TrEMBL record:
Keyword field: Coiled coil, Membrane, Transmembrane, Transmembrane helix
Transmembrane segments: 59-84
Coiled-coil ranges from the UniProt annotation: 86-122
Gene Ontology CC annotations of this record: cytoplasm; nucleus
InterPro entries per record: PTTG1IP (IPR052304)
UniProt cross-references to PANTHER family, sorted A to Z: PROTEIN CBG20567 (PTHR15191), PSI DOMAIN-CONTAINING PROTEIN (PTHR15191:SF12)
Organism the protein comes from: Lanius ludovicianus (Loggerhead shrike)
Protein name: PTTG protein
GO biological process: protein import into nucleus
Keyword Transmembrane helix appears in the UniProt entry: yes
Amino acid sequence: ACSTFSQKSCEECLKNVSCLWCYTNNTCIDYPVRSILPSSSLCSLSNARWGVCWINFEALIIALAVVAGLILVCITVCCCYCCYCRRRSRSRLDEEEEQLARKREERRLQSLQRKHERKLKHDEIRKKYGLLQDSDNPYSRFENE
């Protein structure tokens, strides 16, 4: 029973987690479990201590609310930032992929152009030495002169 610690010290009262210390009349009372906050008829929030003696219940509630709010804001900012970065990285990857496809196509076209130029050069050499067959009749007999 918390009432046995009344008129003693706050530290002795708060060793039991289910107790609440009230500085107005130096009493140790059972924490009202049914309600989250103790009613003002029991003890005012500025004079109530729970858990530790050096911070009043009112400041404890405000501090916990601020910490919870900061955590929620941080989680929200992190989620938004991650979603934005993921979308941005996808678009960047798509741009890089398109750029690579363009470069691949340019290299393929350059390769075809060089192949065509080599064929023309070889055909000129064949024509110069009489090795080029007529394209009209590919089965004509090869004659040496």
